[in-house]
């Protein structure tokens, strides 16, 4: 039952989407007030009912180019009401403009209902808002290959090695791990490295559509197969003939669809809903799951035959809290990509800020780290991100000057910046690089010299000049 004290304003012109969001919001205890355009939204806020609005969802398609102006106007009239913006555009510049106008989150359609509600919950928490820690859904486009998967921790590198080896085959792949660990990105990289790289890739997000629509999305349907099926629709599996189908969040697949999919995989024939005929297809299946599917099978929540069909290779991606040593490299990688986006610029980051990032446990994993850095870059006026660039994290964790969570040479790499944001002297950086290499290669000086690209005699001379004990 909806809570009368929680009223959501939805600015949307798409009836189907409005009904879906209204229904999902109702399950979360929200009443919904739907308006079609900017004028209606601003007028509604002045009404008796509109004064009770506590959150706003805005679909850019209903407003067009004036969406950011409307966000500003909405925040002027209701500064405490969070605004979530839905858009079909992946433009980073639009994300920057929306956030600077006051948007709390930026979500690219199609967005899974749970992702939308997660964002709404985060934006309307009773306690002090943590805007920078919200699940920003903005995605920066980039190369999707194994080189773009950043990390050196053994579990992560093991997962990448297994993925790279498996990519060349044709068997099914199941990647398990918490939300935000990069499962879909890894599957895209595997497709790009496979023999099917030039063939179609279809990604079906199980959580982004109603249970009744998923079967049609996968298998297609014939006209009049069910109420509202006016035209024939070709499903994702048939579209991907010769290529790859990725089932994102397969753990959310309904039992009836699990059975139909298991039958299809066993026979190799896809049969559209309402059809008396089928089509033989050659498709490689890949899937992601936030939950361990083997446990779901044991508990009776997932079909064993489908699990076996989908798990030719099982890969587990570790959460970011279990590879905190990768945070500096990930941070610099994201900052480099963020700096290439329209409306933004290249920024450095201080050691103290890196220490702060390393001390957080990142429940939203790599996706959340990217979102936090994106927000910080949007609002940074200086050239360097400092702890003050992350006020929510700073408030949660406090100052890290006591060394708690401080970056170690082993896990965190070489620090380039002083706490004030200025670069460290080159001599200090060089000494740290050599110490790091000696430790990494366990004192094997020939290997250290080879990896550093210098001769042994040059290495020993540098050890002497820099005052480094070669047992460091």
Automatic annotation (TrEMBL):
SMART domains, alphabetized: AAA (SM00382), REC (SM00448)
Any one Gene Ontology BP term: regulation of DNA-templated transcription
Record's keyword terms, sorted: Activator, ATP-binding, Cytoplasm, DNA-binding, Nitrogen fixation, Nucleotide-binding, Phosphoprotein, Repressor, Transcription, Transcription regulation, Two-component regulatory system
PROSITE patterns, per database record: RESPONSE_REGULATORY, SIGMA54_INTERACT_1, SIGMA54_INTERACT_3, SIGMA54_INTERACT_4
Locations listed in the record: Cytoplasm
Matching InterPro entries: AAA+_ATPase, AAA_lid_NorR, CheY-like_superfamily, Homeodomain-like_sf, HTH_Fis, P-loop_NTPase, Sig_transdc_resp-reg_receiver, Sigma_54_int
Domain of life: Bacteria
Cellular component aspect of the GO annotation: cytoplasm
Function description: Member of the two-component regulatory system NtrB/NtrC, which controls expression of the nitrogen-regulated (ntr) genes in response to nitrogen limitation. Phosphorylated NtrC binds directly to DNA and stimulates the formation of open promoter-sigma54-RNA polymerase complexes.
Protein name: DNA-binding transcriptional regulator NtrC
Species this protein is from: Qipengyuania oceanensis
């Amino acid at each position: 039952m909806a809570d009368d004290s929680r009223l959501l304003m939805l600015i949307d012109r798409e009836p189907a989407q409005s009904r879906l969001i209204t229904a999902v919001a109702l399950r979360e205890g929200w009443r919904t007030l739907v308006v079609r355009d900017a004028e209606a939204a601003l007028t509604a806020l002045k009404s008796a009912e509109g004064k009770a609005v506590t959150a706003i969802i805005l679909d850019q398609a209903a407003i067009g180019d004036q969406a950011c102006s409307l966000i500003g106007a909405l925040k002027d009239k209701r500064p405490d009401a969070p605004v979530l913006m839905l858009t079909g555009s992946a433009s980073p510049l639009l994300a920057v403009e929306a956030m600077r106008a006051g948007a709390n989150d930026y979500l690219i359609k199609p967005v899974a209902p749970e992702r939308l509600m997660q964002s709404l919950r985060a934006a309307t928490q009773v306690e002090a808002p943590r805007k920078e820690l919200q699940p920003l859904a903005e995605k920066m486009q980039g190369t999707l290959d194994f080189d773009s998967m950043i990390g050196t921790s053994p579990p992560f590198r093991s997962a990448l090695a297994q993925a790279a080896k498996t990519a060349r085959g044709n068997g099914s792949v199941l990647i398990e791990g918490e939300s935000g660990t990069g499962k879909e990105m890894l599957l895209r990289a595997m497709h790009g490295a496979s023999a099917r790289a030039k063939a179609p890739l279809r990604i079906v997000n199980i959580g982004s559509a109603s249970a009744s629509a998923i079967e049609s999305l996968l298998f297609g349907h014939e006209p009049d197969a069910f109420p509202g099926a006016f035209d024939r629709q070709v499903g994702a599996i048939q579209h991907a003939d010769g290529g790859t189908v990725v089932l994102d969040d397969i753990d959310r697949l309904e039992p009836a669809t699990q059975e139909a999919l298991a039958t299809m995989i066993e026979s190799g024939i896809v049969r559209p809903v309402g059809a008396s005929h089928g089509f033989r297809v050659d498709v490689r299946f890949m899937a992601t799951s936030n939950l361990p599917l083997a446990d779901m099978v044991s508990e009776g929540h997932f079909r064993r035959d489908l699990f076996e069909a989908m798990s030719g290779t099982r890969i587990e991606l570790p959460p970011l809290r279990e590879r905190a040593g990768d945070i500096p490299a990930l941070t610099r990688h994201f900052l480099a990509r963020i700096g290439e986006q329209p409306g933004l610029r290249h920024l450095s980051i201080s050691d103290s800020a890196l220490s702060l990032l390393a001390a957080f446990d990142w429940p939203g994993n790599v996706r959340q780290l990217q979102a936090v850095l994106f927000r910080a870059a949007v609002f940074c006026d200086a050239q360097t991100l400092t702890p003050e660039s992350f006020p929510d994290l700073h408030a949660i964790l406090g100052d890290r000057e006591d060394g708690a969570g401080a970056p170690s040479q082993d896990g965190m790499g070489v620090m380039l910046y002083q706490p004030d944001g200025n670069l460290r002297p080159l001599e200090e950086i060089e000494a740290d690089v050599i110490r790091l290499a000696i430790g990494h290669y366990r004192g094997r000086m020939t290997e250290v010299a080879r990896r550093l690209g210098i001769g042994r005699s040059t290495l020993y001379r540098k050890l002497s000049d820099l005052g480094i004990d070669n047992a460091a």
